[in-house]
């Protein structure tokens, strides 16, 4: 498996003499054959600025960094794939930070690119190639004309056409899981927030956060357009907004009005679940699905990344348990990172968290972050590091009733919560 690298112009090459290596946390590691899959459709190769790739010289058995002028290469995986290793590199300038993406190790083998990843879900619905851009343009124009005063549709049109956000695109295509952002504020200061970064963070937020408070009418219009099929999903809580539950009154009123007219589809919220009383109100209004974002079930690690304001990890756990007890299909948006998520203490804590809350689904989501900055932020490892592939196997063994996936699912037949008609 040959080392893959790029030159200063972004041209990608495989090295004829060096074996490609990966990275787990801050350790350079050899890549195992059973960790490799062919580069999936919808994946993107990117060069990592301010880095030098590291390969293994098979003759000497020594690791070697390529000379200046070369850059490491990583793959950005589509949804449905869980990365197992980071690219093997050292930074040529330690002061520089990598853009907020989830980089995966890539090698050249048998005449094609391979990545260190495991498919954890069906990527079909979230493959960018399955979004017809021409049809999307037509539907964006149709809905903007139909609802000319709806600021949410105008906001989402930029998300769909400018950022090529698939969830926003689904809102215009009236399919699968669609977006309805509601909040410009947040009760957390996430280190890797993709919509808002402090001026001194050194990161550039790849998206622009919404800057207005929508009306209930605007929210209801989008929800009713989306919920036209039995398995359609409308989701509060998007990358372009803050914490949706801070707008609890809008959400609850919109849900009541929609369910008074329509029992189709599923209402989902993507949330940090820290505002427990607000989350209970949303659950009681008829929520079907809840996906809670977390990076760890260990307080010190969770707090270092999320920087929660006036809530704790215990609030998150209480919110999840309440939702599960009320029949909501609960999941976590688990932000994972090789060399951290697969630590012994992290796995043990998460297994306990999942059992206490009655989780139904763990969505393995590759953390978009500069690795060095993240590793400096969080606690050091306390126990063994198992590796991401073994970690997935442990979860499947210890949590046999929990689905290991990558994105929001509708509940299996017979597990749907009864619709609350208003």
TrEMBL record:
Pfam families: Radical_SAM (PF04055). InterPro entries: Aldolase_TIM, Organic_radical-activating, rSAM, rSAM_sf. Gene3D superfamilies: Aldolase class I. SUPFAM superfamilies: Radical SAM enzymes (SSF102114). It comes from the Bacteria. Keywords: 4Fe-4S, Iron, Iron-sulfur, Metal-binding, S-adenosyl-L-methionine. Residues 181-347 form the Radical SAM core domain. The keyword Metal-binding applies. PANTHER family: PYRUVATE FORMATE-LYASE 1-ACTIVATING ENZYME (PTHR30352:SF5), PYRUVATE FORMATE-LYASE-ACTIVATING ENZYME (PTHR30352). This is Radical SAM protein. It comes from Paenibacillus pinisoli. Its cofactor is [4Fe-4S] cluster. The keyword Hydrolase does not apply. One of its GO terms (molecular function) is metal ion binding.
């Amino acid at each position: 498996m040959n080392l893959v690298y790029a030159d200063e112009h972004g041209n990608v090459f495989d090295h004829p003499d060096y074996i490609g290596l990966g990275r787990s946390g801050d350790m350079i590691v050899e890549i195992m054959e059973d960790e490799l899959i062919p580069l999936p459709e919808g994946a993107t190769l990117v060069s990592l600025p301010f880095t030098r790739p590291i390969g293994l010289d098979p003759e000497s058995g020594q690791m070697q960094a390529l000379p200046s002028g070369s850059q490491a290469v990583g793959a950005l995986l589509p949804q449905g794939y869980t990365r197992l290793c980071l690219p093997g590199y050292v930074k040529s300038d330690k002061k520089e930070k990598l853009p907020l993406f989830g980089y995966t190790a890539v090698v050249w083998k048998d005449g094609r690119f391979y990545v260190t990843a495991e498919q954890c879900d069906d990527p079909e619905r979230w493959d960018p190639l399955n979004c017809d851009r021409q049809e999307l343009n037509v539907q964006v124009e149709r809905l903007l004309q139909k609802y000319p005063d709806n600021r949410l549709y105008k906001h989402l049109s930029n998300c769909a056409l400018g950022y090529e956000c698939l969830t926003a695109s689904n809102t215009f295509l009236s399919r699968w899981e669609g977006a309805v952002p509601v909040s410009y504020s947040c009760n957390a200061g996430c280190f890797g927030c993709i919509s808002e970064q402090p001026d001194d963070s050194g990161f550039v937020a790849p998206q622009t956060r919404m800057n207005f408070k929508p009306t209930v009418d605007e929210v209801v219009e989008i929800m009713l357009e989306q919920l036209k099929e039995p398995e359609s999903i409308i989701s509060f809580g998007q990358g372009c907004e803050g914490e949706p539950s801070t707008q609890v009154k809008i959400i609850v009123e919109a849900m009541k009005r929609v369910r008074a007219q329509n029992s189709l589809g599923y209402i989902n919220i993507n949330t940090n679940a820290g505002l427990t009383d607000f989350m209970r109100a949303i659950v009681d209004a008829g929520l079907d699905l809840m996906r809670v974002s977390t990076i760890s079930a260990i307080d010190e690690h969770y707090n270092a990344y999320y920087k929660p304001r006036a809530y704790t990890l215990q609030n998150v756990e209480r919110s999840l348990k309440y939702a599960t007890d009320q029949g909501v299909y609960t999941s976590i948006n688990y932000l994972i990172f090789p060399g951290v998520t697969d630590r012994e203490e992290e796995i043990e804590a998460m297994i306990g968290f999942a059992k206490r809350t009655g989780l139904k689904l763990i969505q393995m989501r590759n953390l978009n972050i500069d690795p060095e900055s993240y590793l400096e932020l969080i606690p050091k490892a306390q126990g063994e590091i198992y590796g991401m592939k073994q970690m997935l196997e442990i979860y499947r063994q210890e949590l046999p009733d929990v689905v290991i996936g990558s994105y929001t699912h509708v509940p299996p037949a017979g597990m749907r919560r009864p619709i609350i008609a208003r």
